[in-house]
Amino acid sequence: MSKTPWQQRIRRAENLAAHHAFASQILGFYIHVARFQEELYQRNPERAARFPLFLDLVAKHGPEPLAHIAENLTQVSDTSRSDLLEAVWSAASEPPSNPQEFLAFAYLQPFAEFGRDSSEMHLECYTGSVCPWCSRKPGMGVLRQQGDGGQRNLLCAFCLTEWSFRRIVCPGCGEEDPVKLPVYTAAEMPHIRVESCDGCHAYLKSIDLTKNGLADPLVDELASIPLDLWAQERGYSKLHPNLLGM
Ligand SMILES: [Zn+2]
Ligand SMILES: [Zn+2]
Question: Which of 20, 52, 53, 103 would suit a FRET pair with 41, their CA atoms being 20 to 30 Å apart?
Answer without folding.
Answer: 20
